Amino acid sequence: MSDEQGRETFVDTGPAPRAAERGVERWLLTRGSSFYALVTLMLCLAKYGVGIDPSWNYLQALARHWRSPHASALLASPADFRLESPVSAVLAGWLHLTGNASFLEFHFVLVCVALTVPFAMPAVRHEAKLRFLVGLMIIGSAIPSLLLSWVGSYDPVSIIAASIAVLARSKWVSFLGWIVFAFNNGFEAIVAGVVVCVIIFFDEERRVDARMIPPVLGVTYGYVAIAVLDHTWGGATGPFTLFRFYGFHRYLVGALDYWPLIVASALGVGWVLLASREVRLLPAARACFAMSLVASLAIPLVALDETRITAGAMWAPILLVATICVRKLDTKAITRVLRRMTPVAVVLVLVVVWDGSLVYSGWHGAADVVGYFFLHHPIPAALAP
Description:
Elements: H1 19-29, H2 33-48, H3 56-64, H4 87-94, H5 100-116, H6 122-125, H7 128-139, H8 143-149, H9 155-167, H10 171-184, H11 186-203, H12 213-233, H13 239-246, H14 248-267, H15 270-275, H16 277-280, H17 283-298, H18 306-328, H19 331-347, E1 353-354, E2 357-358, H20 366-374
Antiparallel strand pairs: 1-2
């Protein structure tokens, strides 16, 4: 149904919640952004602990030689593909955080920022239902699994930029978010930009809209900028060169072995959001559902880091759909969706798939992490540089 202003409304046909449930819901919806940021971070840490990127020392080498990366033997071809994602490593080098502990501590801080930055955006701070929904999207996605299992990687920068790109109210801030996203991971940003534009197209009754300008221009500028920088540094092995280097069979086997898990991790609890009856009525949500299926089936065939690329590319689109749902669904409808998503988001645990195997997190428990960061305990021998 639609009212006179075109706002989507729905008739509540479900059972009335108990008074206690309504009280909990009201209490949660009155909590501020700081509360949601803290609870989200704590739940993510409780579910996934903290691990380490198995090849973190390659980015550490980039941090130590950020002015001339090829001076590091670690960044010889084909490992020099990491030069296409330089933001966090160059920042660490610029800040002189290149020691083992300081480099990983810096990247752990970036992970925490990536998991909480959506709550700092005005669009989320000023809308209670969106705060709740975004919190569920983070807790029930593969993003915390990806970031916390791979501390020391460049992924936090991509997630921070993607979140800002779609949640910013200012087109200029959104534009800058897309630039940083593409500069740090061009392939993910291109996929995300295309899907976001498709969602906007269907959200605006199949019309080109001004909201498409930031992703189109931002991704273009960012991609050109990193290409110029890589050329200045001496070039880097690109993803399609890697494809020829490893051969299609390796990609195919890795994808087939874990395809159901890869598809699930593409959106996590976002699949519950898109499958909800109330949300399915929105053209933008249907477009996102179709594009997500295509991406989660196609990306693993051209990317060895299956979960990382798929979940990273689909993060901006599913956040955009969340904002559309809160804007277009009435209070009863969005409340039913939140009730449906909450238990799934809390209990869902998603494992990162990389190159046909599950990611080894490095540390065996929180005590090892605390010992390394604060008590000078050694890093796991298998992951030492």
